[in-house]
C-alpha cells in the first residue's frame, strides 16, 4: 500500500469504456466521477481479477484511490501503473491488498531516448533481457516499442 507519484498530462488517454452510471449533463471537462468510472473500466479491461474493486478520483488533487483484493503483487503493480499512466492522474493511492504477498518490483520512469533494451542493460547488465521487462508490463504494453517518456514501468527482480 502506498502513494505513488506520476507525471500528470503525459500519460495515455483513457479510452476504456466507463462503468455504467446515470448520465448527467456533460461539461467540457470530465467530472471526477466520470474519470473514476473510466479508470474502473480500464482496470476491468486488463482482466487481472480484483475482488471488491472500487476507484475514486479527486479532481482537485488529481489523486486516484484504488481499493480491492488481488491475487498477486504483479497484478497490484500493473493496476497501479495502468491508472497512474493515464493523463488525468498525478498520484495513485494504492489501498489494495494481496492474497499472497511477494517482493515488490522496482519502478522506472522512462526518459527520452529509452527503449526496453537500454533499460534492461541498466537493471540486469544485459540488453537481451528486455523481454523480462516487456512481459512484466503486459497487458499494459502491447509491443516492446510501446513506451513513452514519463511512463512508469515495472522492473521485476
Describe the structure.
The protein is an alpha+beta fold and 157 residues long. It folds into 2 domains: 2-98, Histidine-containing Protein, Chain: A; 106-155, Membrane-bound Lytic Murein Transglycosylase D, Chain A. It is 27% helix and 23% strand. It contains 4 helices and 6 strands, in the order βαββαββααβ. The chain has helices spanning 32-45, 73-84, 116-124, 130-136; strands spanning 2-5, 51-58, 63-70, 91-98, 106-109, 152-155. The strands form 2 sheets. Strands 1-4-3-2 form a 4-stranded mixed β-sheet. A two-stranded antiparallel ribbon has the order 5-6. β2 (51-58) and β3 form a beta hairpin. α3 crosses α4 (130-136). The two termini are 19 Å apart. The mean pLDDT is 87.
Comma- or semicolon-separated keywords:
alpha+beta; Membrane-bound Lytic Murein Transglycosylase D, Chain A; two-stranded antiparallel ribbon; 157 residues; Bact_Kbp; 2 domains; 4-stranded mixed β-sheet
Oligomer: single chain
CATH class of the largest domain: Alpha Beta
CATH architecture of the largest domain: 2-Layer Sandwich
Shape: globular
Instruction: Please name the CATH topology of the largest domain.
Output: Histidine-containing Protein, Chain: A
Order of helices and strands: EHEEHEEHHE
Number of helices: 4
Flag low-confidence runs.
Answer: none
Major β-sheet profile: 4 strands, mixed
User: How many separate structural domains?
Assistant: 2
How many E-type strands? 6
What's the arrangement of strands in the largest beta sheet?
1-4-3-2
Q: Rg from C-alpha positions?
A: 16 Å
Region (Disordered): 12-31
Domain LysM: 106-155
Protein name: Peptidoglycan-binding protein LysM
Pfam family, one: BON
Amino acid at each position: 500500500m502506498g502513494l505513488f507519484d506520476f507525471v500528470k498530462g503525459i500519460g495515455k488517454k483513457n479510452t476504456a469504456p466507463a462503468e455504467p452510471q446515470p448520465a448527467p449533463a456533460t461539461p467540457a471537462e470530465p467530472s471526477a466521477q466520470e474519470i473514476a468510472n473510466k479508470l474502473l473500466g480500464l482496470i476491468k479491461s486488463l482482466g487481472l481479477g480484483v475482488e471488491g474493486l472500487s476507484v475514486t478520483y479527486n479532481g482537485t488533487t488529481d489523486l486516484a484511490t484504488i481499493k480491492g483484493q488481488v491475487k498477486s503483487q504483479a497484478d497490484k503493480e500493473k493496476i497501479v501503473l495502468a491508472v497512474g499512466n493515464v493523463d488525468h492522474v498525478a498520484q495513485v493511492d494504492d489501498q489494495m491488498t494481496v492474497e499472497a504477498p511477494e517482493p515488490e518490483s522496482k519502478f522506472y520512469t522512462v526518459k527520452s531516448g529509452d527503449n526496453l533494451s537500454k533499460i534492461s542493460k541498466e537493471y540486469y547488465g544485459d540488453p537481451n533481457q528486455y523481454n523480462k521487462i516487456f512481459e512484466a508490463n503486459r497487458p499494459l504494453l502491447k509491443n516492446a516499442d510501446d513506451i513513452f517518456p514519463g511512463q512508469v514501468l515495472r522492473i521485476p527482480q
